[in-house]
Design goal:
CATH architecture of the domain at 69-156: 2-Layer Sandwich
CATH class of the domain at 69-156: Alpha Beta
Strand content: 15-25%
Largest sheet: 3 strands, mixed
CATH topology of the domain at 69-156: GMP Synthetase, Chain A, domain 3
Structural class: alpha+beta
Number of helices: 7
Strand order of the largest sheet: 3-4-5
Radius of gyration: 31 Å
Oligomer: single chain
Helix content: 40-55%
Distance between the termini: 89 Å
Length: 189
Amino acid sequence: MVSEPVNDDYKSEKSTTRSDKDPINKVIVKPILKTDRRRSSALSLNSIHKKKSDKKTSQEELHKSENLPNDLVKEDQFLELWNSYIKNLNKKGEKIIASIMNTDKPTLNGSTIELIFPNSMMKAELLKIRPKLLKHFREKLNNYSLDFDIKVNEESEKKFAYTPQEKYNKLLEKNKALAKLKKTFKLDL
């Protein structure tokens, strides 16, 4: 029987099993995990303090753009980068953020990216990923003064047509000749 040297980081246990013909010796080596410090609970005061400090550092990183380049950005160049970012999000499976970004076509006013969303929930979701987005756009466009201006216009929320009458009225807004077609052929809804 061959014995293996025992490492300080491992604890060994021997277990012997017998089969019908030959005895087999197995050495099971279990690692002992060493942790220097315990992980804080998600609901502890330390974790809340850590989240706040992380948020402050991300805000500070956004405002460190004084000595960085501010190249002129063309709107078509920005829109191309915006659309490619949406495609990458879709490929990664982050479809919610991609659809939020696809809700409105952004306009570039100097170094301000202006967006209008139909509800505040979309604004909140985009603000969550704002540091990551700004970092990406600032690096790719070499303009570190870019920033978001997000507005909520609840009147711009799309109204969905559910009943046949609502669908007909919606189509009638787009094409007035539809009323003449309905009258000529005596169509029902």
